[in-house]
Design a protein that fits this description.
9 strands, 319 residues, three-stranded antiparallel sheet, 18% strand, two-stranded antiparallel sheet, elongated
Length: 319
């Protein structure tokens, strides 16, 4: 009997042991499941923040070229206005362009056209939008470079370091910024005319579509080109950017027009020189190389003169 009683107690012990195992297993299961749920939620939060930041970076990179284009265009217009008001060329175009692009100023003077639309202002707006999304945006070591690789366009390149940090420290990006945009110089005012005339007259850059100036005895194309003061590419002439500094030396990306001196005689007679070549950078320069009246146009444009270097360029001759 004692044996049976002991056996019965062992059966109860086994039963309670099984129940305990089941309960502990249940607790472990719920604990693991709960942690798994928490980790999943955290993973989703992290993924959402990463996607948000990645989308924001995409928006910045998509929009930055547009911002660079608009601010560059306004900056060049502002620089032309500054030339008109001050009557002198820029000593260092690149330095002045950087200043107006990043601060909207030239030599510390605020310009109305760039007051709210310079490139530095655009980067501030990006930072403000980022803050609303819980993203700290920092653009460090920003610099602007301008150059030409053809006569009719100016390239503007923005370089810097772009850093984005999520305020929850979930994710961050650190990458180099290198964006380039192109500006067509068509319909910009020629700085050479603005400074040379002290703002009394200007010439808007219009690219000539004429390639053959004279055909036999027909000089109608040449006459139209001269009368309209259109521009043509010339490796003898200064480039558009060089004109902002008054640098009249030759450039592979040079452009030139013919100064319509009959108009000048009316507007600014003190700038009328009847015995000079009418090629713009020659006419507005201090020197006066040997030149002559063009045979093909002398009955219509008696004032149109060229120096020897340009006669072949315009398919012209002198007596």
């Amino acid at each position: 009997m004692a044996v049976k009683k002991g056996f019965g107690m062992n059966k109860k012990g086994v039963f309670f042991t099984i129940i305990s195992i089941i309960l502990v297993s249940g607790l472990i299961f719920f604990y693991i499941s709960g942690n798994r749920y928490t980790l999943t939620e955290k993973s989703r939060v992290v993924q959402t923040r990463i996607l948000t930041m990645d989308s924001f970076i995409g928006d910045i990179e998509h929009d930055i070229e547009r911002g660079l284009f608009i601010s560059s265009m306004r900056s060049l217009i502002g620089m032309s206005e500054y030339l008109t008001e001050n009557g002198s060329y820029f000593t260092n175009f690149s330095k002045s362009f950087n200043e107006i692009m990043l601060n909207g100023t030239i030599e510390g003077n605020q310009l109305n056209i760039t007051k709210e639309s310079h490139f530095g202002n655009w980067t501030d707006k990006v930072s403000s939008i980022g803050s609303k999304l819980g993203i700290e945006v920092s653009l460090q070591n920003l610099s602007i470079e301008t150059f030409q690789d053809n006569p009719w366009n100016v390239k503007i390149r923005a370089r810097g370091n772009l850093q984005l940090v999520d305020i929850t420290q979930t994710a961050s990006w650190d990458r180099d910024l290198n964006v380039t945009t192109n500006l067509d110089i068509t319909e910009f005012e020629d700085p050479l005319y603005l400074v040379s005339s002290a703002g009394k007259f200007t010439n808007t850059i219009i690219r000539s579509n004429i390639t053959d100036f004279v055909s036999g005895s027909n000089a109608s194309n040449l006459i139209e080109h001269v009368n309209r003061s259109w521009y043509r590419a010339s490796t003898l002439a200064p480039s558009f950017l060089m004109r902002y500094e008054g640098n009249l030396s030759a450039s592979p990306f040079g452009i030139e027009s013919i100064v319509h001196i009959e108009n000048i005689q009316v507007i600014a007679p003190e700038l009328y020189y009847s015995g000079k070549s009418t090629v713009d950078y020659v006419y507005f320069n201090a020197g006066n190389p040997a030149n002559c009246e063009v045979n093909e146009t002398k009955n219509v444009l008696a004032w149109f003169r060229l120096e020897n270097a340009h006669l072949s360029e315009y398919e012209a001759h002198c007596s």
